[in-house]
Amino acid sequence: MELLLLILLMPLPVFGVRANDPIAGPWQTKEEARNLECTRLGQSRAHELHPDQVPAPPPRGASGVTDALSCTQRFMRYGERPDRDEVILSSLSQTVGEITQVASALGSGELTWHVDAFYPGPAVAAKISVTARTQLAERGLKVSDRVPVLAAGDIAVLGRMPPSKAYPLACARYFAQGVLEERDAFLGLMIVDARETQLHAGLCMRGEWRWLR
Amino acid sequence: MRSALLSLAFALLPVSALAEEPTVTEARRAQLESLRAQVAGQIQLQAYDLLDELVFSWLEQPVFALDTPVVLADVSVPVGFGSGLQALIENHFAALVVKNPRTRVLLAHCPQCTSVVVHSGAKGTIISRGVDEPEALSTAGALSGSRHALFLDFEVEGAALVLRARITALEPALPIVYAKTLSTSTSSAALLRTADRLKSATEARQEYLDALQGRSLYLVPVRIGVRSYAAGSGQSIAIPPFLWLQVGAEAPLTQARAWTGSLSLGVSWMPQLHVGWMVQGRISRLLSGSVTSLTRPDLYGFVGGSVLSIHGLSALVFQDQVLDLRDVTSQLLGVDPQALFGAVQLGLELRIKNRMGASVFVESLPSMNNAPSIGRYVDLGPLQLHSLGVEVSFCF
Question: Which range marks the domain in which residue B149 is found?
Fold first, then answer.
């Protein structure tokens, strides 16, 4: 009987250690573990952020563990927002950052940048365009908050065309109608297929459309 | 009859299940709302933190050279959150700007800027927000002197909250004159700075750490303690407890206060009985961890040595021999008896944030092993414990 009790009690220290472990186990479900975002931090940075849990690094250095895994719950858990929106929004800064980096490298000269996003949800579309405008402005480019618009007839025609043809034609129409001029650049961010979760981007300058991604 | 009742019960089962469904849904909705409120609470604090950082950056590097009216044109919250969070953010931002005039941003009231306006011109009729069509506002004379619009956009990206702020000049081209992106550090708690004395994140965090870790490396502990001595064998009169007041200095011997050392002077006074002096040194070792805790009390074990000098009648207790004629004569002549002896201490101290502490200790008086008036609480042969004591300490 004592042996059985001993065997039952033996895993307890292991469970105790795993109480703070971010992986799924007896203390948290797979769903909870999936909603954690973890970053590995150096001990001094971890101490700075969590002084009550991580001690300051010893002045003479340490031979043991010198880093910490800092985990926090996602603000919006998976499933709270539509999946496509969640994927787009979770990596918004990074994705749009890559796009604006390429775009700003291509747009030479003193240009005024205009940005618009084409996404089924208007709230998410606004987030995408705001991110792009802010990032372009932070790069020191001249950015306008004004969104170029086409006439209703143009939009009706463009809406019936496949994206691969619609965006280049829209670019040409912007230029033909004088909505965009020589010194204007238009950066469009969009999803081409309603089922995809990757942002595409194109640049319209002097009536010519160029896919960036 | 029984079969009929059973049939009726089976027939009613799906109906009862349907009847319960709305209750379950309501409970789930309530649970979801409760969870969402918790998340919103966290987001609100993080959003405040980002706003503090934004306004602090304006204090350090103002966007405008002169005081400039600015319309708060739009505050957008993360997708999935509602207008409640938006209102909280607006209020906090307004409070920050009002309390920090050095930002040179003056919030202007322009209801038309955020409303939908209809403007008919040569190019046609345009329906848009006021800030998106400044010509319409200008024509209507609704700009109230403000020529700039501020947009604050918050979005959740995984575990980080991102603020994108931009200021647009309200002129036909709508140029963005200022843009800044701020993001919360991974999993760091909001700093909760006060609105009227904004400081940088580094300074705020350092203040927070200072508050947690204590005021400085060196402390001045004031200890009030009571020592009681075991009565000697065959003594019918108990020795009264000695009350001590000690003041000293304490210094950490390691950075994490795992080891500390202190030196103190003490005084004890009992009317008509004694005046006592004490010099005491202690070395303490943290037992409850490798570093002092910032959130829980710390337990220290300590050893110390002291030299005590007692003047007055109470000193007679600390004689290592039975009273003889010389002692009685001295007393009759008005010469105060005195005793000088050493003590070794061993104890435990529970300390709260280097501010308050309570300790219990035992003392051995090596020179009193043969004293007839002093007994022993514990006799371990070479080590005899003659005294028990408790102390409370306040550190300054």
Answer: 33-109+144-211
